[in-house]
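sorry to bug you again but im stuck and you know this stuff better than me. what follows is a protein written twice so to speak, once as letters and once as structure tokens for the fold. id like you to explain what the token line says about the fold, in plain words if possible. anything you notice is useful, everything is just below.
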Amino acid sequence: MAIDEGQFVSINGQEQWITIRGRDLKNPVLLILHGGPGFPMSFMAPVFAEWEKRFTLVQWDQPGGGATWSKNEADPGPLTYARFVDDGIEVTEWVRRRLGAVSPVLMERYRAGELTLDQMMAYAVSVDHARQEQVFDQLGPDRPSYLIRRTMTEAKVMATDRRAIFVGAEAYGEAGGTILRDLFTEDGGGWFEDPALLDRLAAEKLAGIAQAVRDAEGWKWAEAHIDYPRALGLARVYPHPVERPEEETARMSALSEEYDALVSEWDAVETLPPEIEARFAEIDAALEAFGDGTAFDPDEIARGGVFVILGQDGVARVERGLIRPEDVPAPEPAAEVEPDGVAAGGEEHGGEGGSAETVRDEEADDDAGAPLSERLVLDLTAHRTLALRDALAAQPTVALSAVVHSLALTAFYPPYDRASCLEIKGSSAYLDGHAPGIDDTRAGRSIAERHERWAVRLPKEAGDVWAFVQALAATDLLDLLAHSASLTVNAVRAPFDRKPGAWGHAD
């Protein structure tokens, strides 16, 4: 909607001339200050015709100039710096109120002193007078401005929302979406008025990223989600260190040495020559292309998949190595022996043609391997358990390794694959259900990155973890203990799960 108007406005007690011209009220507002007392520019509207296509232009005949001087020639008032500053601020506020298009009903209440300027600015987030009056009737005259603004925009999406950041105002506008601008905020970000369109655009963009990752890396599947989907029973695998070819290692070493030499040579120079800056960028790109020295196994990529989710910062995040339950490989079956002494896939012992001596030897072997009674097994293993407890208590270093081993199995491996005789049952409470988006906070990302660093170092098979833990240096052992133990912390105060002792411990 275009605007072309001029009028005298009371500015700090004096009538002053202001004009407003523009092709579209949705454009940014530009207030032209000509200086004063001096020559006004409001009559030069044709000169600014091109500007009016992109801006809503406000011309103000400042005190001592133009129509304002003519109107107040008999008493122009003091022409001081302080006066021009104060009048300029007042003109700015008047323009905001005018272009905010507040309902005449609310304007009357404002003039009567029933509404403050902050409240009027909050109502002006929308030019819909009926909506303004509806919210006023709903809230009354005494509600704070933040509550008014929130109620006026409750069916819209803020420009700071992660979906709006991810899609972008330009793409949203090209798809036919409209943005409600707030003239009274510093950034003027406003609200996206079509949440359904925004959701669709975000989903389509995420899906495109997911497909690109799948095509480039060869995963079995790739899915896009706004939030990380839970309760799907997915297993997780991580990349493992791979041995680099000798020529690749040599090339990386040469690039690193060249980088260090350039740093030493140019460290004292504040402004680098363009060719040196370009070489730094080339080396950085080449080293980054080599990757971090880890990779997923090809069979894991063939069975696994990827989630592309939208972080709280509006940036897409790729979660790799997710395995659906049906794609988890079944454990290898143990060799079976049939009751009649025939091994699966084998022949009978002492078959036709066998000697009597051979039969007697095999019978002796069968007796030696005869199963013990259940009662005897329980008795013997109870004694062994007690002996292990006593021995472990006498060896603190081994006990520390055993505790770390047990906690690491809980933190990094599926529950059915617990190769530990310590019955330490750690659990990690799911926090995103209580505080959506918490995984994308600084603490959440720090924990996830630390978890992935350890997952890369740990063996693929749970049965190999004990040897890995025993071989760790003391500092690494304590670091793994700290991380695994930290995942079990739960200080959530849930009304359905009261644990005052645990809450007190957390405090």
The radius of gyration is 37 Å. Residues 386-506 form one domain. The mean pLDDT is 81.
